[in-house]
Amino acid sequence: MKNKWIPAVLIVLASAVLLSFSKADDDPIKKIATQLDKWLDEQPQEKIHLHLDKPYYAVGEDIWFKAYVTAGSDHRLSALSGILNVELINDRDSIKQSIKIPLTSGLGWGDLNLADTLKEGNYRIRAYTNWMRNAGDEFIYSRRLSVWPASPIGPQDPARPNPNTTFGRAQAVAASRPDVQFFAEGGDLIEGLPAVVAFKATDASGRSLSVRGQLLNAQNAVVVPSFSSRHAGMGRFAFVPGAGQHYHARLTLPNGSTTD
């Protein structure tokens, strides 16, 4: 009679062991996920965007900008940092100017002076907070910029480009081109995953510009057949990025002209 209970006891023990293993397998995953969410909440990644006052500059001018510092996956304005470092760097990676501007709830304003002694050429603007240094250089803001020779003073209207000078011709070309900036939702495009990209278009004076266009890949194949701004030069479109691809936009301006 006693021996008849042995199989039943073994079955109960085996079930208990299996349940304990199942629970042990589930708990670490949930624990890791919870800890990861907690870490992301406590250590959000900051990102920076600088809105410049115009798309081109000459020696002797000032680069006026507004800074936006966001944190976390929802891109809320950051309260983590109170100082933003902004640097002007030449094509030899030499820092020509460095300033610190105060941030208030993720917003800041400042300017970089292009001194008369500065050489024309290719530069880049780098911006970062001390908090961002913990995450590596890939999160630091960087934007390329061309600095032209100083515009000569002549009898013509100084506000109108002089087509007889190198700077005047470059100024006229730049003035006719819109400044269109693209912002990937979440900050990055990941191959094979659906992505939403927002954009904002402005003219040379910084005013919003209504545009429509197409997105093309490196082989000039159309990826997004049509997108257009909806309000104040802003809009968005969705697509799936491909592996190792580079993309560019072909835009149609209000006057009917097109530009890439």
Structure classification: alpha+beta
Strand order in the largest sheet:
2-9-8-5-6
Order of helices and strands: HEEEEEEEEEHEEEEEEE
Low-confidence stretches: 153-159
Mean pLDDT: 77
Oligomer: single chain
How many strands? 16
Cα radius of gyration in angstroms: 27 Å
Shape: globular
Q: Beta-strand level of the residues, as a percent range?
A: 35-45%
* End-to-end separation: 89 Å
Sheet with the most strands, sense and barrel status: 5 strands, mixed
How helix-rich are the residues, as a percent range?
10-25%
Number of helices: 2
Task: Give the arrangement of secondary structure elements.
Elements: H1 5-42, E1 46-52, E2 57-58, E3 62-71, E4 76-77, E5 83-90, E6 95-102, E7 107-113, E8 121-128, E9 141-148, H2 166-176, E10 179-184, E11 195-202, E12 212-217, E13 222-228, E14 234-239, E15 247-252, E16 258-259
Parallel strand pairs: 2-9
Antiparallel strand pairs: 1-3, 3-4, 3-7, 5-6, 5-8, 8-9, 10-11, 11-14, 12-13, 12-15, 15-16
Describe the protein in words.
- It is a single chain.
- This protein has helices at residues 5-42, 166-176; strands spanning 46-52, 57-58, 62-71, 76-77, 83-90, 95-102, 107-113, 121-128, 141-148, 179-184, 195-202, 212-217, 222-228, 234-239, 247-252, 258-259.
- It has 260 residues and is α+β, with helices and mostly antiparallel strands.
- Strand 15 and strand 16 form a beta hairpin.
